[in-house]
Each structure stands twice: as structure tokens, then as C-alpha cells.
């Protein structure tokens, strides 16, 4: 391909039509072309003499279709395009029409004109692609935002670089036609090269650096170009400047006030990035104007108190009282430090005079863990309010630190959820507070990518880098980001290049490790001082007006400080980020403390069973192996639970990798037509005429991000059953942060009820160490049961115990009990996380079946299933009482039968492990008073349930199970079977009982 064609290709912005085909200031394609009908008076040589732009227009027209130009021009351009040996010269001669007319004008003259134009077009593109590398982003002026001081060779930073394009200093005052892929002309179609470079530098190399040319969509690229290249577009009215100044005053003086009053307290202040507050308010104002009435935010600890005070508008006295060490302890749970707390507030947006709801999610110091939680809650709000495109009711804003944004994998996982149908929130605005340092780690040691924001490129999100000491540039970028989200419903990133005036916290000494940076910071003038001086100098405000605004906010803070003395920290519910006002009483308590039976009417059971074994769509070609046999197995028990809840108006959402079919091919909730591509059927959505929707969705191969997302989804409403299923139970270990920081302790720290359900396939079946154990010991270790204390509750012991626990851990052994526990999760008058160790081999085990009578009206979940065989008829004759849970029960009953010990050994199943069913276990122990107590489990002794299961004051006299081990399971089938035989022998070795009796 010739250089003409190669360079012309560069100008075809992202694969769309060439610039000259569009309307506006360029030549529109129409016939007849003015040059198509021109005569010999308009020969190539004469055209070169008259107008180089004329030649350029014809050249691009010719590239599309050779018939667009006169035959003389067709021959001329073909000759220019060809490259070959001298022997081919004859084929490149002009047509007879041109011979004799171009003698005085070499084709090289025309070629130079076209090449120069193409060079200028390439130069424009170079600035669009790489201008951000030389943008003035660091407020301190000492660091390169992209960690590299190298200046791209194709950017004209000095005159001598013109030679890179074959241009010279003498060309600076030549005018060149501008391509359609730029807006620097501001309506002009030609500009002198000197002005082209000046405008490009103003657009891309000032206090804003724009990364967007990797986006593979012409419309989106053009939209961004127009927003940043149009001359004079970054203008603000005097009223807007005064508003910006007032917001900057509030942001700065708030931090100053806290520093004066509590100089020795950690607060993770915003000094060095005070512009974050007006930035967020600009995003919210622009979004509110576009129709958004609800915004949910997540952020790390830096600046949280300022955001709560000046964006969410939490009462200052409630914030200040958190600093008083004399205040009473929290009324519920352990509480959390003040810079982790969240807030929910509905107020009037003064910029638009519209109601807006703002929610800031509480989160721990695991900085990015809140990202998917925010997305899940936003998705749920959109879903329940019918906002299919995120245009009205909900938008999410995520704030990040630079080190965490680049270093935490959950950021990548969250981005990859952003455009999946069942997970998209239709665009999130990400704001990175780029301190240009981690805690103490230099960014050159903390990331391999040029920018901390490079992870966003994986989803083609535009990235706007901006110098945080230029408030107007920041405001403009925030306005554009909000408009982008509204226009395209895609993620966008704002990178606020700033600094930390103090260390990681106010008690830290940063000079230990960053002496040069912090010497410069000590000399750095505050952004408020710089901006106020500018506005006063420009006559936008007077010095008196500025001082009055400062004094006004200082007075507000002082008055709030005085009233905070009367506040009580015990009112932790002031900090609730996800209230359920229609679910709890005004005091935040359950409206009742009982749970109705979870059984079902026979008609409901029959209807659900019939739907589960049929296809509601006509002419749908189902796979023959999916025809159900009507037995109440595990899959049908789940179907009964989901279907009955849908009938009652409860939304059911099941999410996780492969959940539509189930990892073990047991579920099949999405049927695929075997003859028609992409034709599917979800029978669960065809159960009832006015049912709630059922959402079953395969997720990306992510545990951390997806579990966090589902947790957030479950926060939005108590009237939904939200479940996350792991492919194998042990896969939850990559989501451990969500489990530890949010699910286990969320209510204690943040008074946050949540009914999320975790389905964790578990069972030792010789499949190796990674596909066996869901690590039940970890969940039990974090349960707040006291094994040495028998709880005393008035009223309904079961419900009271559930209300007091932090989560519920079960290992169901029957399909009916699985159905009941799922229904109980919704029928309870409060919400607790539910951890279910689900089976693998039991999914199809012939003995793991239930009778439909077990689901009949009046039945309910069995926390403990006593022995129902011959041993139960004569409990005094039972010599050994074995407690167990889960799959091992079926192996024990098989071995008991083999040894003919049905009358001698009773086997009791704990279906609910936490909270521990003390009352039922005590009853079984007292019933078999003379029996030897044994705890049997298939897990290793140092794992599983053994250390948790203190049987009501009588620790099991014997343990039957695998020996302690470092790995959760063996990878050798023979070893697995030998271990099984060994602990089965131990479980039924009655010699110890005989010795004890003797």
C-alpha cells in the first residue's frame, strides 16, 4: 500500500466513513462532482497552482471511487499510487489529455502538497492519541503522571520536530485543510499550521489529559473530541465560578476545622484534593439535570467525612460527636470507626431544585471491596424501579485511591461486570483521587502500567486526567463525564492528579520516605488561596465577599460543634446506608418475632411440579435427558422453594458461574432449544400470571466481584431472595474479603441487615483437595455462638436465636429441608445471611429423596433430624449416639445396616449448625442418657465442625473422622477410601462403650 493510502487510512476515524463524505464544513458527496465535469482547463498542474485543497478533496474522492473524478485525474492519481521498477514507467505516463500540459509542473509538486496535508492530519491524530503524555497534570510540578519523562517523538514540542513529518519552520504559516476528525477549527475548515499546533496543545497538553483513542466507536470518539477540542468550550459564567468557590471554601474549611479541634485524631482528611467536593457536586448536579434522582456512592476513607458533610449533607453535629471519646458505646453491635461509616439522605438538589437521594455505602479499610457492592445495590434499585437503561432512578459513583485502583484485582472484576446484561448499571463514574503515592510506596514500585487508571481501558472507558489544582478544569471534566454517562450509558474515569498534604493519616510522617515530594508540598500554596486570588483579581468576587463566605461556614461548624456535645453515639442508626422503612418498625426492630410454617398447599406443589416437568412454550425442542421423573430430589426441592416465593411476589435472583444449568447438571432453569440457536425458555417465569420475576444469570468467572455485587443487590430490598452459588464450595476463598468484612460482620459494624444466601457445594468424594471442602470451619469460627453457654430466650427460642446470630449456617441432608430453609429465609421477620453447604453426590443419591408430605402445609424447617429407625423405639438401649451433619449421614446409615447395629446406634443429623440448636441437642442427649456421645464427620479433625460442636456441656466423648491434615482432602482415590473405612470403623467401634460400662 502506498503512503498516500496508508495515511489516508489514518484519517478514517476508527473505521467509519472518510471525513470528506460528511456534511458540515467539508465537501459532501454528491454527483455530479464539480471536478467530474471539469474540462482541460482544470488539469492537475493548474489545480496545484490554484488550490492545494482542491487537489486534496479530489484525491479522497478518488480513493472511494475512481469514477468520482475526471479521467485525467484518475490517470494522474493512479500513476502516483503505483510503485515499481523503471520498466513499468510506461504504464505510469499521464493520459494524452495531460501530456504537454504538465511539462512545467512536476507531479512531485502535487504529491508534496497532498503529503503535507496528510502529515498535518497525522499530527492532529498524534495529539489526540498521545497528547496526555505531556499534559501538565502534577500540581507539584515534580512528577510525570505517566511515570515517564519521555516526550513522544510525534508531538511538536520544538520546531525541530517538524522534520518528523517532513515539514519545516516555513510551513508554520501555511494554511491546511482540517480533517473531519477534529473540532479545533471551531467552524473554520482551514488553519495555519502554527495555530493548529497551538490549539492542539491547549486541548490535549494543558491541565487536562484525555485518553480515548483506543475506543472503537467513531461516534463516541467524535463526541469526546468535540467536548475538548472546540475552542473556548471550557468556559464558566461568573455565577458558576462563585458557586465553585463557595464549594471549595466548604471543603477546605471543614478540614481546617477538624484539624483545629481534633489535632491528634485520625480523620484521613482531604487536604491536597479539596477539589473532590465540588467535583462530586458537579457530577450530581449534571446528572440531576439529566433526570437522575438517586445516586449511590462508594469510597475509601480519605475524605469520607468531608463527603458526608458537604455532599451527602449529613448533620455536622452527628459527625463531630463521633470524635468525643466520652460518648456512650453503640446501642447495637460493635460499630466502626467514623471514616468507615455510610449514610442515606434524601434532599433537594439546589442546583436543579429536584429531589435527589444520596447514599454512601459503609465499607472497611479493604479499599476497593465496596466497588461491586455499590454496583449490585445500584442494579437492584434500577431493577425494582423499572429503570431498564439507568436513565432516571439510579447512578453509581465510585471513588478510588490511585494505588488501590491499580493494585486491587476486584477493580478489574467490577469493570468486567459493567456491560454484562444481568450486572450492568448502565455506566459508572469513577473518580480516582490520585495522591501519586500509596501509603509510602512510590508508584514506580507499585504498578507496571503508565497510569493507575489503565485498567479501565479493558472496557473502552474514556479516561480524563486532570490537574486537581485547576478547579475549573476539574469541574469541566466532571460535567463532561456526567454527560458521557447520560449519552452512552458506559463507564468513565476521572483521574484527579493531586497530592496528600499530610501522610497516609494525620499522625504519619511522610518525610521518612518521600522527602523531596513533601518538601515541595510544604511550599505548595493551597488551591483555595490560588483560586480565590484569581477570582478576586478577575473581579468575579470581592475580598469582602470571599471573607464573608468563609466566616459563614466557620460559624456553621462552630454551632454544630456546640450542639454535638448533646449528641449520643448510641444512635448508630443515623449512619444506616440501606434503610428498609416498610420492613422494620420506626425504631428499627422487627414487627414480630415469630416465623410461620414454611409448608405449602398441595395445589401449589402440584402446579410447580407440573411446570418443572414441562415446557411452557410451544414447538420448543427440549433435550430428551431433561424430562423430569417427578421425584422430590434436590433440584425439585429448590424449584418448589423458588416457585412458591415467586407466587408470593418475592423476587428470586440466582447468580454465579454456570448457575443456569448448575455445575453438576442438576438445575436446568434455562432451557435451550435443540434446533433453534439462541432460543431459550425459563419455565420458572411462566408459573403464575402475576408472579414476581425470576432472574437466573451465569456470571463472569469471578467470585470476589460477583459475590460483592449480589451482596449489594440484596441490600436494596428485604423482599427478595438473592443467592450466589460457587462452582465448588472452596471457590469462596477468593471472595473471602466480602465474607469477612461485609457478610459476617456487616450488621455488627453498620446495623446492616442482609439476607444474601451462599450456596457452597461441599463433600469429600475423592475429587482432590480443591473440589471437596467449602471450609465450614471458617464460617463457624466467625459465628458468634458461645459453645460454653446455653442461651436462655423467652418466647420462640428458634426465632430469638436466629435474631441474635450474625449469620445462619446449615448443611441440609434432604431436599425438603433445603426447600424449607430457603422459604424460612424470606418468612423470617428479619434478614440474616444464610450459608448453605450444598451437596454434590446427594443431588442424585437414591436415598436423598423427600416425600411431598414433607413439604405439606404446616411443615417447617427441621434444625435437627433425630433418628427415626429402630433405635428411636428404645432409646435406653442405645449404646452410642452419633451426631453428624450432611452427606456423611448416608454413609453412616449404610455402614450401620451392614453391621446390623440399627438398635444399638442412633444417628442424629444437625441440619442447622449455627446458631447451634442447643435445645434440640440437649433433648437428644437427655433422651439417650446412657449412650456414649460421638461426633462423626468426613472432614479432617482440624477442619469441619468438630471444634465447634460442644454438645451442651458434654463434649463428645469420641471423635470419628479423618485425622488432622494440612490439605482439605487427598487427591488419591485409594487413600480416600481407606480414610473413609477407618473412620467408619471408629464410628461403630462399641468396645469403648463396654469398657465405660464396666
Can you describe this structure?
- This protein is an alpha/beta fold and 998 residues long.
- It has 31 helices and 24 strands.
- The strands form five sheets. Strands 3-9-10-8-7-4-6-5 form an eight-stranded mixed beta sheet, sandwiched between helices. Strands 14-11-15-16-18-17-22 form a seven-stranded mixed beta sheet, sandwiched between helices.
- The radius of gyration is 35 Å and the shape is globular.
- It comes from Hippocampus comes (Tiger tail seahorse).
- Belongs to the alpha-ketoglutarate dehydrogenase family.
- Residues 80-104 are annotated as: Disordered.
- Residues 632-845 form the Transketolase-like pyrimidine-binding domain.
Give the structure's gist in a few sentences.
The protein is an alpha/beta fold and 998 residues long.
User: Main β-sheet: number of strands, strand sense, barrel status?
Assistant: 8 strands, mixed
Strand content: 5-15%
**What is the straight-line distance between the termini?**
100 Å
Q: Name the CATH class of the largest domain.
A: Alpha Beta
CATH architecture of the largest domain: 3-Layer(aba) Sandwich
Please tally the β strands and state the result: 24
Could you tell me the CATH topology label of the largest domain.
Answer: Rossmann fold
Q: Tell me the helix content.
A: 25-40%
State the CATH superfamily name of the largest domain.
Thiamin diphosphate (ThDP)-binding fold, Pyr/PP domains
Tell me the Rg in angstroms: 35 Å
Q: How many structural units, i.e. domains?
A: 4
* Global shape: globular
Overall pLDDT score: 85
**Count of helix runs:** 31
Keywords: Calcium, Glycolysis, Isopeptide bond, Magnesium, Metal-binding, Mitochondrion, Nucleus, Oxidoreductase, Thiamine pyrophosphate, Transit peptide, Ubl conjugation
Region (Disordered): 80-104
EC number: 1.2.4.2
Subcellular location: Mitochondrion; Nucleus
Amino acid at each position: 500500500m502506498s503512503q498516500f493510502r496508508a495515511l489516508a487510512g489514518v484519517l478514517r476515524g476508527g473505521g467509519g466513513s472518510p471525513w470528506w463524505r460528511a456534511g458540515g464544513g467539508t465537501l459532501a458527496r454528491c454527483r455530479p462532482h464539480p471536478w467530474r465535469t471539469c474540462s482541460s482547463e482544470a488539469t492537475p498542474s493548474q489545480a496545484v497552482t490554484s488550490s492545494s485543497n482542491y487537489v486534496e478533496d479530489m484525491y479522497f474522492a478518488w480513493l472511494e471511487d475512481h469514477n468520482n473524478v475526471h479521467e485525467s485525474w484518475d490517470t494522474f492519481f493512479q500513476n502516483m499510487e503505483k510503485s515499481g521498477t523503471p520498466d513499468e514507467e510506461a504504464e505510469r505516463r499521464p493520459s494524452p489529455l495531460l501530456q504537454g500540459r504538465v511539462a512545467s509542473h512536476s507531479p512531485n509538486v502535487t504529491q508534496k502538497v497532498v503529503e503535507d496535508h496528510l502529515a498535518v492530519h497525522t499530527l492532529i491524530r498524534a495529539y489526540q492519541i498521545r497528547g496526555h503524555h505531556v499534559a501538565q497534570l502534577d500540581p507539584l510540578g515534580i512528577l510525570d503522571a505517566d511515570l515517564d519523562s519521555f516526550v513522544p517523538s510525534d508531538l511538536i514540542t520544538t520546531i525541530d520536530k517538524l522534520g518528523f513529518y517532513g515539514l519545516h519552520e516555513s510551513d508554520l504559516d501555511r494554511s491546511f485543510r482540517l480533517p473531519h476528525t477534529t473540532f479545533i477549527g471551531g467552524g473554520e475548515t482551514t488553519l495555519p499550521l502554527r495555530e493548529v499546533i497551538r490549539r492542539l496543545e491547549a486541548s490535549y497538553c494543558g491541565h487536562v489529559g484525555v485518553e480515548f483513542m483506543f475506543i472503537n466507536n467513531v461516534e463516541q470518539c467524535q463526541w469526546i473530541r468535540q467536548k475538548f477540542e472546540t475552542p473556548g468550550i471550557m468556559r464558566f459564567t461568573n455565577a458558576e465560578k462563585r458557586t465553585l468557590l463557595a464549594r471549595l471554601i466548604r471543603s477546605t474549611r471543614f478540614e481546617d476545622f477538624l484539624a483545629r479541634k481534633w489535632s491528634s485524631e485520625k480523620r484521613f482528611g482531604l487536604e491536597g484534593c479539596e477539589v473532590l467536593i465540588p467535583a462530586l457536586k458537579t457530577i450530581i448536579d449534571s446528572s440531576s439535570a439529566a433526570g437522575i434522582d438517586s445516586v449511590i456512592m462508594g469510597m475509601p476513607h480519605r475524605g469520607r467525612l468531608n463527603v458526608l458533610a458537604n455532599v451527602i449533607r449529613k448533620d455536622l453535629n452527628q459527625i463531630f460527636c463521633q470524635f468525643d471519646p466520652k460518648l456512650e458505646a453503640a446501642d447495637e453491635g460493635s460499630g466502626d470507626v467514623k471514616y468507615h461509616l455510610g449514610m442515606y439522605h434524601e434532599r433537594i438538589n439546589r442546583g436543579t431544585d429536584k429531589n435527589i437521594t444520596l447514599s454512601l455505602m459503609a465499607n472497611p479499610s479493604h479499599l476497593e471491596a465496596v466497588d461491586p457492592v455499590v454496583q449490585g445495590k445500584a442494579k437492584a434499585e434500577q431493577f425494582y424501579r423499572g429503570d431498564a437503561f439507568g436513565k432516571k432512578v439510579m447512578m453509581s459513583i465510585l471513588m478510588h485511591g490511585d494505588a488501590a485502583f491499580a493494585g486491587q484485582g476486584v477493580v478489574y472484576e467490577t469493570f468486567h461486570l459493567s456491560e454484562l446484561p444481568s450486572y450492568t448499571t448502565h455506566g459508572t463514574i469513577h473518580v480516582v483521587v490520585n495522591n501519586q503515592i500509596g501509603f509510602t510506596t512510590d508508584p514506580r514500585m507499585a504498578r507496571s502500567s503508565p497510569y493507575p487508571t489503565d485498567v479501565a481501558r479493558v472496557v473502552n472507558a474514556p479516561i480524563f486526567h486532570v490537574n486537581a489544582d485547576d478547579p475549573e478544569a476539574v469541574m469541566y471534566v466532571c460535567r463532561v463525564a456526567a454527560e458521557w454517562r447520560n449519552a452512552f450509558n458506559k463507564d468513565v474515569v476521572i483521574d484527579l492528579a493531586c497530592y496528600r498534604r499530610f501522610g497516609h493519616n494525620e499522625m504519619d510522617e511522610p518525610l521518612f520516605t518521600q522527602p523531596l515530594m513533601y518538601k515541595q508540598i510544604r511550599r505548595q500554596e493551597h488551591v483555595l488561596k490560588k483560586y480565590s486570588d484569581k477570582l478576586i483579581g478577575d473581579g468575579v468576587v470581592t475580598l469582602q465577599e470571599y471573607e464573608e463566605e468563609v466566616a459563614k461556614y466557620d460559624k456553621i461548624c462552630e454551632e454544630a460543634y456546640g450542639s454535638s456535645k448533646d449528641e449520643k453515639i448510641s444512635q448508630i442508626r443515623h449512619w444506616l446506608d440501606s434503610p428498609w422503612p416498610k420492613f422494620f418498625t420506626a425504631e428499627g426492630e422487627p414487627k414480630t418475632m415469630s416465623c410461620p410454617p414454611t409448608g405449602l398447599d398441595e395445589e401449589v406443589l402440584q402446579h410447580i411440579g407440573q411446570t418443572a416437568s414441562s415446557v411452557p412454550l410451544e414447538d420448543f425442542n427440549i433435550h430428551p435427558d431433561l424430562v423430569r421423573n417427578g421425584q422430590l430430589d434436590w433440584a425439585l426441592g429448590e424449584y418448589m422453594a423458588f416457585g412458591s416465593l415467586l407466587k408470593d411476589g418475592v423476587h428470586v435472583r440466582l447468580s454465579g458461574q454456570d448457575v443456569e444449568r448448575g455445575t453438576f447438571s442438576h438445575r436446568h432453569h434455562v432451557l435451550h432449544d435443540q434446533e433453534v440457536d439462541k432460543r431459550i425458555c425459563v419455565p420458572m417465569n411462566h408459573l403464575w400470571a402475576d408472579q414476581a420475576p425470576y432472574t437466573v444469570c451465569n456470571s463472569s468467572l469471578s467470585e470476589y466481584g460477583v459475590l460483592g455485587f449480589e451482596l449489594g443487590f440484596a441490600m436494596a430490598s428485604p423482599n427478595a431472595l438473592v443467592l450466589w452459588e460457587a462452582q465448588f464450595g472452596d471457590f469462596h476463598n477468593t471472595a473471602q474479603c466480602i465474607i469477612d468484612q461485609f457478610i459476617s460482620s456487616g450488621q455488627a459494624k453498620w446495623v446492616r441487615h442482609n439476607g444474601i444466601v451462599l450456596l457452597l457445594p461441599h463433600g469429600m468424594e475423592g475429587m482432590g483437595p480443591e473440589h471437596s471442602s467449602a471450609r465450614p470451619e471458617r464460617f463457624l469460627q466467625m459465628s458468634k455462638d458461645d459453645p460454653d453457654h446455653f442461651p436462655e430466650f423467652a418466647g420462640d427460642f428458634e426465632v430469638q436465636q436466629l435474631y441474635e446470630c450474625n449469620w445462619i449456617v446449615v448443611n441440609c441432608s434432604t431436599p425438603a429441608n433445603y426447600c424449607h430453609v430457603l422459604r424460612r429465609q424470606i418468612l423470617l421477620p428479619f434478614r440474616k445471611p444464610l450459608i448453605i453447604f450444598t451437596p454434590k453426590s446427594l443431588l442424585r443419591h437414591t436415598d436423598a429423596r423427600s416425600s411431598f408430605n414433607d413439604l405439606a402445609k404446616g411443615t417447617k424447617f427441621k434444625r435437627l433430624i433425630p433418628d427415626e429407625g429402630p433405635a428411636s423405639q428404645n432409646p435406653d438401649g442405645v449404646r452410642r449416639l452419633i451426631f453428624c451433619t450432611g452427606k456423611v449421614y448416608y454413609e453412616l446409615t449404610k455402614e450401620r445396616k451392614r453391621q446390623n447395629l440399627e438398635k444399638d446406634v442412633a444417628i442424629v443429623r444437625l441440619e442447622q449448625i449455627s446458631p447451634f440448636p442447643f435445645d434440640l441437642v440437649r433433648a437428644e442427649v437427655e433422651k439417650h442418657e446412657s449412650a456414649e456421645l460421638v461426633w462423626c464427620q468426613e472432614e479432617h479433625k482440624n477442619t469441619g465442625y468438630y471444634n465447634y460442636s460442644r454438645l451442651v456441656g458434654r463434649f463428645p466423648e469420641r471423635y470419628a473422622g479423618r485425622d488432622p491434615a494440612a490439605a482439605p482432602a487427598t487427591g488419591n482415590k485409594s487413600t480416600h477410601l481407606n480414610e473413609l473405612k477407618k473412620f467408619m470403623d471408629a464410628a461403630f467401634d462399641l468396645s469403648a462403650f463396654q469398657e465405660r460400662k464396666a
